[in-house]
Design brief:
The complex is a heterodimer of chains A (338) and B (498).
Chain A lengths: L3 H59 L5 H4 L7 H14 L2 H19 L7 H14 L5 H7 L5 H13 L3 H8 L10 H9 L6 H9 L5 H14 L2 H11 L5 H14 L5 H4 L8 H14 L5 H8 L5 H12 L3 H13 L1
Helix pairs in contact in A: 3-4, 4-5, 5-7, 6-7, 7-8, 9-11, 10-11, 10-12, 11-13, 12-13, 13-15, 15-17, 16-18, 17-18
Chain B lengths: L1 H46 L2 H6 L6 E7 L6 H9 L6 E8 L5 H9 L1 E3 L13 E7 L5 E6 L4 H10 L5 E5 L4 E2 L3 H5 L1 H5 L3 E10 L4 E3 L2 E4 L6 H23 L10 E5 H6 L10 H16 L4 E12 L5 H21 L10 H16 L1 H17 L5 H29 L6 H13 L4 H18 L7 E3 L3 E2 L21 E3 L6
Parallel strand pairs in B: 1-2, 1-6, 2-5, 8-12, 9-14
Antiparallel strand pairs in B: 3-4, 4-5, 6-11, 7-12, 8-11, 9-10, 13-15
The chains are: A mainly alpha (338), B alpha/beta (498).
Chain lengths: 338, 498
């Protein structure tokens, strides 16, 4: 089917193909071995450095040695390793010890800041995370600027650094950029904001009440306020319930009234137990059950007979989460009877 | 006439060669994509501080659902392992799927189980639920006792009682890395459209397990298990990572997958009519979202691992591969409407055809190709060009791909720390092409015929148990002095297709 010359050419091509693949296999083996050697060397180098740094850092932290002694031991080539090493301590320490770690890191952070301009987003994010942990004071402007980075990963690293600072002023900078985190899980962002503390409540309340803001952004603010159990926000949330149309926002507002509301909010909540939306009904029932001292057996029966099994489940869960044991027992007892 | 037959065989040989070329090219593409993707993933992991990210209350609660069937030998240890996972909020739901042994009794004794109420949140039909128990010692442990209905049915029973937004389907006899949940949940934190995520399955044979965790990783001593360890590396690090990079993950292993509960309930839960319920669910989720225009993502995360014991005898391995092939065929035939339909996007035009033509029909083409090849050689009509080309694509390229998977492992997670294991893996990459691949192809072919005959059922898996150094301090009764092989032989349901 093929003439002799053609056969020779085909054969030659195939033989070359096999040779090329064999070379590729050898190259891959070389790559695997190279990776292995590099990994082993990295582990050994880390172990060596730790061996040198461990006793000194403990001595510095305990105050038996001045912090300057450790700088002489950090070779220029080891500065990034040293920063990474300090990060491990920074995560675990607080107060004056943490300040000492930051002081130890300060001379080396300048080199790291250059990485904020790196093309690779993961390098940028890592640099922001590190300077956010060890050099928040010194590099505040760079961290705030990173909220506008083209990469969500970098922006998130900046947001986390700013919220972890504990400073409401810095965390408020994150509030203005919440829209860019709409792909992220809202409860995660809300939790980050709530960790700043009650000082965040005021700007969060303003965001919750801002009708021009995206519903997804307002949901984050409401969830953060619920974590803070802010009573002033509950008043506003109850008022907003009447006009809210976004389902996630209504559920979040009800959640806030549930944890921080009072009996006078009941008239604004009660209409929602008739909502066609099961998550809204569940939250509304739970809120009424918690806030109404006269929550009756008839109302418990109504919860249990809801067409969605999620309504009684979520009501019980919500009540359990705030320690409303008596109500939970009543509902469970009614469920057993039913 | 004879000449015409040989001419047909010649053309068929060409067709088989083309099949091998296309198959291996797809593997090469996948490996290259995986290389890029894994590098990026590893860097990204360094940039994220997962522990800190999850220390907040924002981490979504997860329910682990683990079906158990006749697992009295390992169930207590497995549950203890699950209870020690590092994650802010999770529940463990063990579904005792009508075990005939003392699985339920052992769990009851070990965890002080007592009957409890747990309202059903879902309505997926299942076999009869006999009772629901909760632990007095561990508030997040629940056991559902039900009549036997198979793995999918047991998962559905767990799904019906799941209250958290996410659930993690696992095999009760697998061991998860302590931080596996924290790692596999990441796509759900970063992208709210994520509906499912799969993790890596690794071979536990040869590893040392302590306090319910794999503490020392090594290759198994059995040659057959070693070959599977390499196979899993290739399948997950080169295959799944590559498909993830293409946004076309069509399979999440039943041994370790995290799902959005509401969506799985919306599609009707697991299909009890197939033995490939894990793949079928993922295909159905794709189909459901694409048909309704729902924005979604099915992710694969290469760092969280579930460690599982693999078959060490040809007989059990044959049954496993037979079942995997049946599951694949059942799924692809059921959803054949997705094939080459542009409305199903990359899944319909790319991933589904790959599985349909290269994975499902592959064994038939390969077997016929080997037969034609042998016939050609025996008749003396074989050409050296064809022989060389066959060698090139079927053996040399196959070896290159396996070695590439080993290189990917070294690049990313390097979980096998012993240099001897690395050398062994490289050697296995060549050796598996001479016999093992052909054998698995024949088993898959047998699976194809089983599917055509309408065979159902899982078959039995024989396990010897994990190698433990010092067993759980929580369970003094199971303490074993020094390295040992505990728990004799147990017949249990085999884990789903990897």
């Amino acid at each position: 089917m093929i003439d002799d010359l053609g056969r020779d050419r085909v054969f030659l091509g195939l033989a070359l193909g096999i040779l090329a693949l064999i070379f590729m296999a050898i190259a891959l083996i070389g790559t695997a071995v190279r990776f292995r050697i590099r990994n082993n060397e990295t582990s050994r180098a880390w172990a060596r450095r730790e061996q040198g740094w461990d006793p000194l850092i403990l001595a510095v932290l305990s105050g038996s040695q001045p912090d300057e002694v450790i700088h002489g031991l950090v070779a220029p080539a080891d500065r990034f390793y040293f920063i990474e090493y300090l990060m491990r301590y920074a995560r675990r320490l607080d107060g004056p010890e943490r300040s000492l770690i930051e002081k130890l890191a300060a001379p080396y952070l300048g080199a790291l800041v250059q990485r904020i301009a790196n093309r690779d987003e993961s390098f940028r994010a890592r640099a922001i995370r590190t300077i956010g942990t060890l050099g928040q004071e010194q590099y505040r402007a760079e961290i705030v600027a990173a909220l506008d980075d083209s990469s969500d990963l970098v922006a998130m690293a900046a947001a986390r650094s700013l919220t972890q600072s504990g400073s409401p002023e810095l965390a408020t900078a994150v509030l203005g950029k919440l829209a860019r985190f709409r792909q992220w899980r809202p409860s995660l962002i809300a939790s980050m904001l709530a960790r700043v503390g009650p000082a965040m409540a005021e700007p969060l309340r303003a965001l919750m009440a801002d009708l021009s803001a995206e519903a997804a952004v307002r949901v984050i603010a409401v969830e953060a306020l619920a974590e803070l159990s802010d009573p002033l926000a509950a008043d506003e949330a109850a008022r907003l319930l009447a006009g809210a149309t976004d389902r996630n926002l209504v559920v979040a507002l009800l959640g806030l009234v549930f944890v921080a509301g009072r009996a006078e909010h009941l008239p604004l909540v009660r209409p929602l137990v008739g909502s066609a939306d099961a998550p809204v009904r569940a939250r509304a029932f739970a809120t009424v059950a918690r806030l109404d001292p006269a929550f009756s057996a008839a109302q418990i029966a109504e919860v249990l007979q809801d067409e969605s099994p999620w309504v009684p489940i979520r009501v019980v869960e919500a009540l359990e989460s705030v320690g409303a044991r008596r109500l939970v027992d009543d509902i469970n007892a009614a469920a057993r009877r039913a | 006439m004879t000449e015409a037959i040989w001419r047909a065989v010649w053309w068929f040989n060409g067709l088989v060669l083309a099949y091998f070329v296309i198959l291996n090219l797809s593997y090469v593409t996948s490996s290259l994509a995986a290389f890029r993707s894994l590098r990026r993933h590893v860097r990204r992991l360094r940039a994220l501080d997962l522990d800190d990210l999850l220390s907040s209350v924002g981490a979504p609660p997860i329910t682990l659902i683990a079906p158990a069937y006749n697992e009295e030998a390992t169930c207590v240890e497995s549950v203890r392992s699950l209870l020690t996972l590092q994650y802010p909020t999770f529940e463990v739901v063990i579904v005792n799927d009508g075990s005939k042994d003392r699985t339920l009794a052992r769990l009851t004794e070990a965890f002080d189980l007592t009957p409890a109420d747990r309202m059903a949140s879902g309505t997926v039909p299942t076999a009869e639920i006999r009772g629901i128990l909760t632990s007095r010692s561990h508030r997040n442990l629940w056991v559902i006792d039900k009549a036997n209905g198979g793995k999918a049915d047991a998962l559905n029973a767990g799904l019906n009682r799941c209250r958290t937004p996410l659930f993690c389907a696992i095999d009760a006899d697998s061991i998860l890395d302590r931080d596996a949940l924290s790692r596999i949940v990441r796509p759900f934190l970063e992208d709210r459209t994520t509906i499912a995520a799969g993790g890596v399955i690794r071979i536990a044979n040869g590893c040392v397990v302590r306090d319910g965790s794999v503490v020392e990783v090594g290759l198994p001593s059995s040659f057959l298990a070693q070959l599977q360890a390499l196979e899993y590396l290739r399948a997950f690090l080169a295959g799944r990572v590559g498909w993830e990079a293409a946004g076309s993950t069509l399979l999440i292993s039943g041994a370790f997958g995290l799902f959005r509960r509401d969506l799985v309930a919306a599609v009707g839960g697991y299909d009890t009519a197939t033995v490939g319920e894990d793949m079928e669910l993922v295909v159905r989720l794709h189909r459901y979202c694409l048909e309704r225009g729902i924005a979604y993502r099915v992710a694969f995360v290469p760092d969280p691992a579930a460690w599982t014991e693999c078959p060490t005898t040809l007989r059990v391995l044959r049954r496993q591969r037979d079942r995997w092939q049946r599951g694949l065929i059942e799924t692809l035939v059921k959803h054949r409407q997705m094939l080459f339909r542009p409305r199903f996007g990359r899944i319909g035009m790319f991933a589904f055809p790959y599985y349909f033509f290269l994975e499902m029909l592959g064994p038939v083409i390969e077997a016929a190709g080997y037969a034609a090849f042998i016939a050609t050689l025996v008749s003396g009509r074989g050409s050296s060009e064809y022989f060389t080309a066959f060698l090139l694509v079927a053996v040399v390229l196959g070896s290159v791909l396996s070695i590439a998977a080993v290189a990917l492992e070294e690049l990313s997670f390097h979980r096998y720390p012993k240099s001897a294991d690395l050398a062994r893996l490289i050697w296995l990459g060549v050796a598996e092409n001479f016999g093992y691949r052909q054998l698995t192809m024949l088993w898959r072919l047998a699976g194809t015929f089983s599917a055509l005959r309408g065979k159902h059922g899982w078959g039995k898996m024989e396990r010897v148990g994990f190698t433990t150094s010092v067993t759980s301090a929580l369970d003094p009764q199971s303490r074993v002095a020094g390295p040992a092989l505990p728990s004799g032989k147990t017949d249990i349901e085999t884990p789903a297709r990897r």
